[in-house]
Amino acid sequence: MSILETRENGLAPGTDPASSPRRRDRHAIAGLRSLGTRLLTAAGVVWAAATFTFLIQSLLPGDRATLLLNQLNGQIQERTAAELAPINEKYGFTDPLFVQYFRFLGDLATGNLGISYQLHKPVTEVIGDQIAPTIVLTFTSLLIAWVISTLVIVGTAKRNRFFSSVASGLEALAAGLPQYWLGVILLVVFALNLGLFPVVGGTGIGGLLLPALTLGIPLAGFLGQVIRTEFESGMDQPFALTARMRGMGDTGVRLRHVLRHSVLPGITLSGWALGSLFSGAVIAESIFTRPGLGKVLVTAVNSRDLPVVCGIVILVAVIYVLANLLVDIAYTLIDPRLKKS
Amino acid sequence: MTVLVEKPVSALAPSANRTLLAVRDLNVSFAVGTGRHQKINHVVKNVSLELSAGRCLAIVGESGSGKSVTARTLVGLPGRNAVVEAGQLEVANQDALTLSERLWRQVRGKDIGFILQDALVSLDPLRPVGKEIEEALRLHGWGNAASRRRKAIELLDSVGVPQPDLRARQRPDELSGGLRQRALIASAIALDPALVIADEPTTALDVTVQAQVLDLLAAMKARGTGIILISHDLSVVSRLADDVAVMRGGAIVEQGPVREVLGNPQHEYTRALLDAVPSAHTKGTPLTKEGRSGIIATSDRPRRVRAENSGPVLEARGLGKSYDGPDGIRREVVHDVSFNLAAGETLGIVGESGSGKSTTAKLALAMLAPDTGEVLLDGEPWSSLSTNQRRPRRRRVTVVYQDPLSSFDPRWNAERILVDALDPQDFTTAQTRRERVAELAGQVGLQVEHLEKHPLQLSGGQRQRLAIARALAPEPEVIVLDEAVSALDVSVQAQVLDLLTNLQAQLGLSYLFISHDLGVIHHMSDRVLVMKDGKAVEQGTADQIFNQPEHPYTQELLASLPRLEINENTTRTITA
Predict the structure, then answer these.
(1) Which of A121, B34, B107, B408 has a C-alpha 20 to 30 A away from that of A221?
(2) DSSP per residue over A250-285, as a string?
(3) Are A337 and B171 in contact (CB under 8 A)?
(4) How far is A260 from chain B (nearest CA, A)?
(5) Cβ(B558)–Cβ(B530) under 8 Å?
(6) pLDDT for residue B288
(7) Which residues 6+ apart lie within 8 Å of A269 measured at CB?
(8) Which of A12, A248, A257 has its CB closest to that of B139?
(9) How far is Cα B390 from Cα B373, in angstroms, rounded to an integer?
(10) How many angstroms separate the Cα of A65 from the Cα of each of A7, A61, A297?
(11) Rounded Cα distance, A310 and B47, in Å
């Protein structure tokens, strides 16, 4: 049978994209270039977020020195110029705006986000103290959402019309659940009535599950909806039939072939969700009285502690950027064809 | 051995020793809808088939004939909600009627190999092809991971894949069409099944690659594998099969040895099918009965008359076009292509995928600006005009694509699609527009009731007629037909080709006819341009090109064409 080899060779010379070293170099250069563009874009996004927060801080109505002084003393009153002078001196509020702006950017570049008006601690320290529980919560929520949606889809999509429609109905319902409502229901049912979980959540596993479900269930609904469509069309693809034809069972085809093809839109959604979970954490943390950035943010907003608010805004921007870089990497890992384009 | 209902046992070769397939009165139906609205669709009706080792049985038919459902039923995967009944259904020495899903899984891949068309999507696009072959071995408990890897490379080697160890690590999209189809075959025959079912195994392939894949299947047959070949393509069938069953509407209309059935067809449908294949012998003659009568609604309306000009309508001079590839390498897609198209003439452009035919079409339509060279329309600049200058002349060159569905607005009905294509200056009142649309519909053989339908509600043939009517609407001088009949079944294709021939004769149109199908090109073209890798390798009259090809590539293309010699007296050539 291998007599045909020569013919194929003669007809398609050099069809191998990886064989030429020059091409390989070009691939590497193109890859570096695209990585460079991505990093630049990322830096651009963070810079834009920083500039925006700076402008909000400096252009909001009200004198910042007065605000600061009032917070220090817990009073609300007009201050004299003499009272404000040391504050203005310390924070440089009287400098021209662009001088303040470049100082702000310079501080940002060296990791200095300013000092909290209320806590009198560096913002980086305020955030650093509280970030760990929030990160644990968001990633657990994301994981729970993926596990739930994948299990439901692999189990029901394109299997039995009844179960499939019930499951996709539940997905739509879950996607529409407001987190504050779901959180309260979970708290009342599982913590208060059944007593399965602590009412005041700590940072342990027991205190993690209910808040993570509060954020994870609606997200599972969204994920399920986007993955299901892809999964169903994947089941109709010829390669799924080919796999059946070589003796693979239905479950094998679902897990080993179709699932990988259907997760890409879910990955895209996860990049967005990671950022939105950070804001969702505010709700979950206050319902379950859980430590974390959410509480810090709520307190900071209530007391107009602008450096802390801005610090968190910049942090969320950084997280969005990182999440999207991760999404891009995950994309090429899942679908290597995307590396080319 | 079971006696076939339709044909005596003599239909089988005397050398047949082992029966691989015995099907008697197979019926497959599908339940559509639920409850009171449930309908039963009878897709396969009383089909009886038989196959022995080392033979090839072809099942031929057009789309919707039930041939693929028949093939899938033979591996226990007829589809959802299918009801399978048969007097006898023995596949690879198993009574398929009683097999459980668990047992079926042991049979599939091990005793029966199944090859689908287009390996680009029939192999998992995200995995290296080697993994797919290893999976076939693993599912049946063959060897360990290391020995499976070695075996996969051996298998790739045995189906004629050069550098198999490298290829095994590449994904289908990194392999050429021929190599990935071989890889797909390797995954299907990994465990050396006695029976191989090939469902349109060469349909998406270029002719030269198609010839290689057919050779490979023939080699498997020679080694004793039984092959069931499902195809719509009679030339492929004639090349590989020993016996053939012609299916229509779920039933077999004619069955027997290939030479008898294709050489001396008894059933009217088989004859129509054979006549419908365009090729050398059909040149200058209509392919269908309707085409023979040549009736086309004619109009009394004065036609726009082209200024008398002895020169060509469309002239391309040294066209070149390059693109940047995804890897940053600049590729010349069209290189120094020149041609003339005279009034009332058909110029065929033929070539394999990636040869630059479609880019040439876009350049001719001035939808793409050439990097070098220019296109002239009636001796005047065409490609070098600005968009505004070109717009009033746009109507003079129109186009019909392979897939009209995606070129129609799905929310518009046929009438609105045609009205939209009319020149608003010529048809100012609703009355004149309606008359013109009715006239166009008549010219392409659409009924009045079709005009109210939306593209999705029309059949493939009707859609292509609508696309032709739209191309005719602004009274063009040139129509570019880019693979315009490639997606159609052979009998529908024949009708559309006849329609195009008649329209040309009546309206004096010039066609730039682009196709990968040599038979269609030969049938339609006055002159032919052969393209390869963006270059025009040969140009001449159709008879010159097909009878005395000079360029080695043209010779190779023609040599790859499956031909059928039915008996000593009459040699009939069927081209793909």
Answers:
(1) B34
(2) HHHIIIIIIHHHHSHHHHHHHHHHHHHHHHHHHHHH
(3) yes
(4) 8
(5) no
(6) 78
(7) A222, A223, A226
(8) A248
(9) 17
(10) 83, 12, 21
(11) 75
Predicted confidence at residue A28, as pLDDT, reads 67
The last residue of a domain, from among B149, B172, B192: B192
Bridge partners of B88?
B24
Give pLDDT, residue B290.
Answer: 65
- B130-163 tens-digit pLDDT: 999 999 999 999 889 999 999 999 999 988 888 8
CA distances from B258 to B18, B403, B567 (A): 20, 33, 11
Tokens 């010529």 identify what position? B426
Residue B223 inside a domain? The answer is no
- Hey, what are B113's tokens? 């190999």
> What range does the domain containing B547 cover?
314-573
CA B392 to chain CA centroid, Å, is 36
Residues in chain B, overall count: 576
Residue B220 and residue A1: Cβ atoms within 8 Å?
yes
The answer to whether position B118 is within a domain reads: no
Give A18-24's long-range contacts (Cβ < 8 A, gap of 24+): A18/B166, A18/B170, A18/B174, A19/B166, A23/B327, A23/B329
Taking contacts as CB-CB distances below 8 angstroms, the residues of chain B near A337 are 125-126, 171, 173
Contact B123/A at CB under 8 A: yes
Same domain (yes/no): B333, B463: yes
The span from the CA of A159 to the CA of A123, in Å, is 53
| E strands in A124-235 | none
* Domain C-terminal end among B173, B192, B211: B192
Q: Verify that B404 and B534 share a domain, yes or no.
A: yes
Of B105, B123, B184, the CB nearest to A247: B105
Q: Are the C-beta atoms of residues A158 and A229 closer than 8 Å to each other?
A: no
Q: What is the mean pLDDT of residues A164-169?
A: 90
Rounded Cα–Cα distance for residues A186 and A207 (Å)? 12
ipTM for this model? 0.76
Tell whether B373 and B509 lie within a shared domain: yes
Of residues A214, A201, A213, the one with CA closest to residue A133: A201
Taking an 8 Å cut-off on Cβ atoms, the answer to whether B109 and A261 are in contact is: no
Nearest neighbour of B114 by CB, restricted to A2, A245, A256: A245
Residue of B nearest to A3 (CA): B160
Candidates B547, B549, B519; CA nearest to B532 is B549
Residue of A nearest to B105 (CA): A247
Question: Mutate which of A22, A246, A256, A258 to disrupt the B interface (most B C-beta within 10 Å)?
Answer: A246
B175 inside 8 A of chain A by CB: yes
Return the structure tokens found at A8: 């194929």
- Classify residue B296: in a domain, yes or no: no
Positions in chain B whose pLDDT score sits under 70:
1-17, 280-281, 290-310, 325-328, 563-576
Instruction: Note whether residue B78 is domain-resident.
Output: no
* Minimum-distance CB partner of A9 among B75, B162, B182: B162
Instruction: For residue A292, give every residue at least 6 positions away whose Cβ sits within 8 Å of its Cβ, in sequence order, or none.
Output: A130, A131, A133, A134, A137, A281, A285
Do B240 and B218 form a contact (C-beta atoms < 8 A)? yes
Task: State whether A5 and B216 contact (CB < 8 Å).
Answer: no
The shortest C-alpha distance from A239 to chain B (Å) reads 4
Predicted confidence (pLDDT) per residue in A324-340, tens digit: 888 888 888 898 887 75
Sheet of strand B251-257, all strands in order from the earlier edge strand to the far edge: B112-115, B195-199, B226-231, B56-60, B243-248, B251-257
Total domain count, chain B? 2
| B357-B359-B360 Cα angle (round to 5) | 65
Closest CA to B340 of B363, B373, B320, B317: B317
